[in-house]
Amino acid sequence: MNIFIKLLGTGFSLLAGYVGTKLVDNIWEKATGKQPPKGHDDDVPTTLHSALTFALISAGVSAIIQVLANRGTQRAITRFAKSQDIV
To answer: What is the pTM of this model?
Structure first.
């Protein structure tokens, strides 16, 4: 069952990462009025300052999501282990 919980945690982490990416993109567009600098070929050239700021914000959000997903998975594993001891 631990494998199932770990897979569920991984799935949750991926979903949360996707939602976090979309959230950062939308906030960036509303705050700056420009598309986020993603490095695609059709992007409008951006300044280094803009690209670094976006990268730092994205990395921060990703780190927070990763920590929360790991904590949630560990909490679920602990809760499951306690329920196994009771049964």
So the answer is: 0.73
